[in-house]
Structures are given as structure tokens and as C-alpha cells.
Amino acid sequence: MKNYSMMKHIFISAISILWAASAVQAHHTPPTQPLFTQPMPSIDWSDLIDQSEAFGRNAAVLQLGYGFVRNHNLPFSENEGTIGPFSLLYEKSVYTNVSVGAFAAIQFWEVPQLEYRYNYLAVGVRSAYHFNVDPKWDPYLGLSISWRRGTVSDEGHSESNGKVGLQLVAGCRYYLTDKFGVYAELGNDMLSAINLGICLRFGND
């Protein structure tokens, strides 16, 4: 229940960040336009499967994120020197509203009481469907398959093991400019359940 509550609060915060980004961008529009020219878009459900305006036929996205709500069972309350998890994703349009991509994520930390050092590396591929909502909003659903390698080491010994997993991906990007945006995402890698970060879009038409 504790992890669920934390996930709920972080996801609500992520949506708030996207909303705030929309409001800030709208605040800088010319005075002749309404203050909130790009609030949460009104959705015409019949148009959702039309060609996405935010993720066009030649679009590609590079995104960098930070993960929250761990996807493993190590005692984080006893850790020091934690780095990450950080994730990097490249995604490319391959068909109308359909993308494929590859990603990697890393995390390092220590458990001083046990004199252990841990690190995780996750790599994988994914495919997603992007819904047509608005030129600035890019909501999507997809599936990813990941391989995660965990390593634990002390002064003179180390052990590693690997695991493969399939995950549902659900997320949304909001573009502040034609190329730069922010995003919130559930799923994707095997290190964290929620990712927040920035994204760069190329070749959208």
C-alpha cells in the first residue's frame, strides 16, 4: 500500500508538471490570444486514430528521464550514495501513429550496513501507439521487453544475475516548442515504475 500511495502521488505530480508547463507556455503567447491557448486539449474521440499531429510520419524522439518508485526489493531506506535510475530512449515512427524504440537505464547505490555495492543495468526495445489529440500533446500506449542485469559486490567478490520482463507503457509528452518537451511515463524499464524527464523531437510532419 505504501508503494501504491507513493506511485499515486508521483503520478499526480507528473500530471501537474505537464499542466504547469502548458500554462507557462500559454502565458508567453501574444496578448491578443487568450491566456490559456493550450490547456488540456478537448478530445474528439473519433479522431484519436487519425494521423497524430504531435508524432508525425517521420518523427523521432530522444528522451532523458529519471525514475521513481523502485521496481526491485532492495532496502532503499538504508542506502547511501544512490545514483539514478536514469534512462535514455530513442523512438522512431515506422507506420501511422506506430513507433519502435530502444532504451537503456542505469542505477548505482551502496548499503553501508552490509558493505555492499549494487548496480543495475536495463536495456530493451519497445513499440507504442500514439493517439491524435493535439499538436502539443502526445499520449501513447505500448509494450516493452527489457533485460535487467543486477550486480552486487563487496571488497573482493561480486555476483550478477539477469532477468527478462514484459511491461505495459503508458505516457504523455507535452511540447513547449516544436522540438523540446517534457514527459511523464508509467512502465518502460525494469528499474522504476514512473519516469519523468525531457524530450527532443525531430522530423515531425
Question: Any overview of this molecule?
Answer:
- There is one protein chain.
- By secondary structure, the protein is mainly beta.
- It has one domain (47-202): Beta Barrel (Porin).
- The chain has one helix spanning 2-27, and strands at residues 60-70, 80-95, 98-111, 116-130, 137-153, 158-175, 180-186, 192-202.
- It has an eight-stranded antiparallel barrel.
- It is elongated, with a radius of gyration of 19 Å.
Give a brief outline of the structure.
This protein is mainly beta. It is built from 1 helix and 8 strands.
Strand and helix map with partners:
Elements: H1 2-27, E1 60-70, E2 80-95, E3 98-111, E4 116-130, E5 137-153, E6 158-175, E7 180-186, E8 192-202
Antiparallel strand pairs: 1-2, 1-8, 2-3, 3-4, 4-5, 5-6, 6-7, 7-8
The ordered H/E elements are HEEEEEEEE
Note the gap between the termini: 44 Å
The description of the largest β-sheet is: 8 strands, antiparallel, barrel
Broad CATH class: Mainly Beta
Quote the average pLDDT.
80
The number of helical runs is 1
Report helical residue fraction.
10-25%
* Mass-distribution shape: elongated
Indicate the proportion of strand residues: over 45%
Integer tally of domains = 1
The CATH topology turns out to be Porin
Q: Note poorly predicted spans.
A: 28-36
> Nearest-angstrom radius of gyration?
19 Å
- Helices and strands: which structural class? mainly beta
Task: Please tell me the CATH architecture by its name.
Answer: Beta Barrel
Give the number of DSSP strands. 8
Strand order, sheet with most strands: 1-2-3-4-5-6-7-8
